[in-house]
Amino acid sequence: MTAVNDRLEVAANIVPIPSKVPAWQRGYSRRLCALDLVGVLFAIGLAQWLRFGALASDEAGYQNGNYTFVSAVVAVCWLAALSINHSRSPRVIGSGAEEYRRVLLATLAVFGGVAIVSMLFKLEIARGYLMIALPAGVVALTLLRWMARQVVVRVRQKHGRCITRVLVVGSGPAVRDLTTSLHREPRSEYEVVGACIPGPVTRAQIDVPGVGAIPTFGDESNVVGAVTATNSHAVAVTATERLNGRGIRDLSWELEKLDIDLLVAPGVVDVAGPRLQMRPVAGLPLIHVEKPQYHGAKRFQKRLFDSVFSCAVLLCGLPILLLVAGAVKLTSRGPIFYRQERIGLDGQPFEMIKFRTMVVGADSMVDKLATRNESEGGVLFKIRDDPRVTRVGRVLRKYSIDELPQFINVLKRDMSVVGPRPPLAKEVKSYDDYAKRRLLVRPGITGLWQVSGRSDLSWEDSVRLDLFYVENWSMISDLIIAVKTVKAMLGHSGAY
Q1: Which of 130, 271, 300, 442 could make a disulfide contact with 416, Cβ separation 3.0–4.6 Å?
Q2: Is residue 321 very low, low, confident or very high in pLDDT (cuts 50, 70, 90)?
Q3: What is the per-residue pLDDT across 414-448, written as a single tens digit (0 to 9) for each?
Q4: Residues 6+ apart with CB under 8 A from 340
């Protein structure tokens, strides 16, 4: 209690000074302005050069000078649209897909406006010019934004800068859960630096496993002082019974004077943004959570993607498949393929196919090696230096090449390209009702579990990621995971 009182006294004596947006966000926004200018000028210049420049006919080249004015107008409108659409807002830069979405919407708005004006006033702007500038601009702007984001992520991970300091208001368990969730994502810009716990203060800090101690600064009445004492840039309100709607409104008014952001965590975990819709009813901001979709058009799209993608991989990768098959057969005794029963959609068993990476009879050796199991939770069986793995198998596992035959399972409709990890029958027997929801969709060759660490994940994290995918899967998320899988395979982290 003495430490808490000391911090409260210090916080009470500090005169609140109006805060501003974090310095790193202001600098980042300015750099994005410069990058947007480069991207727009590149797209406009490329379109004009290809359509009317050196590669065009003499007649088109004659029009090149006339289109310089058109290019300048389009560039100015484009940059203005990016600004009007808040594509460089501190709320969206540096994380999430919203930044890219706003860039795309601003770009489409500009070119849609150009097309409408051209039609109404019969300006006859060359369609080839627009058809080059539009995709070139989208690619250039998105690529430059992505490169800028990677720099920020690298600075966060290596130097601990480009961070938004957050003060959390809520009960002890809620503060602990929010801190753990933010710490779990290494790319997150938010760092919890303090907490205000409504009710009598009985402890000087909150111990968060894997993170450390979070100092407390009294209850909800001392938020402004705690913000100043911790130099926080934002306040996050989590589950609490003492801070009602009116209290949150009053708190927002107080933070408004300091230019401090107010974040409200509704306690809805592992739900993707598209499933959340804000519905103001009778002056109350109600959050509507859409039900997970497993049928209809979304399932048809997923099946079509699985079939086309699997056929493409098997056809293009046929030489690799033949080389690997020969290497497995010539370097160790036993069959080329390893077949194992796994549990698929709705708990139905199927035979999964992989290239054999272990010696014959490896399954019968599990009991002897049980004491060397390195998997947290005891459900999975993983050994980093597994003596059963062959020399060729070690290379195949390192780059996940042994899983290529599973695309045959995809064509047989046993698996999907993206989905939860296919479990063993004995693993399913240990599932609780929570984990059984993994069986609502087909298991995948890759998934969130693979692009997030593979064998380095604990059992709890593996289940959490699989369930997040099951509850929120979409075609966009499947495409993103497929792209990230290539990076994970090349980096071979967590593969053994």
Answers
A1: 442
A2: very high
A3: 999 998 888 888 888 888 887 888 888 889 998 88
A4: 351, 352, 354, 363, 424
Task: Report residue 413: phi and psi, to 5°.
Answer: 70, 20
Tokens of 326: 């020969």
> Residue 277: in which H helix or E strand, if any?
strand 276-281
Pick from 21, 19, 22, 9: which is nearest to 254 by CA?
19
DSSP state of 365: G
- Inter-CA distances, 416 with 122, 198, 312, 315, 451, Å: 50, 47, 14, 17, 16
Residues 470 and 391: their CA atoms lie apart, in Å, by 36
- H/E segment holding residue 179: helix 172-184
Average pLDDT of 380-397? Answer: 82
The answer to whether 250 touches 233, Cβ cutoff 8 Å, is: no
Residues contacting residue 440 through CB under 8 Å, at least 6 positions apart: 292, 294, 345, 346, 470
Helix, coil or strand: residue 169: strand
Q: Are residues 39 and 144 in contact, defined by beta-carbon separation less than 8 angstroms?
A: yes
Question: Which band of pLDDT confidence, cut at 50, 70 and 90, is reported for residue 94?
Answer: confident
CB 484 within 8 A of CB 451: yes
For residues 372 and 468, is the Cβ–Cβ distance under 8 A? no
pLDDT by residue (tens digit) across 6-32? 554 544 444 444 445 677 888 888 899
**Taking each helix axis from N to C terminus, what angle separates 98-120 and 127-159, rounded to the nearest 10 degrees?**
160
**What number is the average pLDDT over the span 73-96?**
87
Quick: pLDDT tens for 261-304.
Answer: 888 877 655 565 566 666 666 666 666 666 666 665 677 888 89
Q: How far apart are CA 174 and CA 298, in angstroms?
A: 35
Per the listing, tokens 């004492």 go with: 229
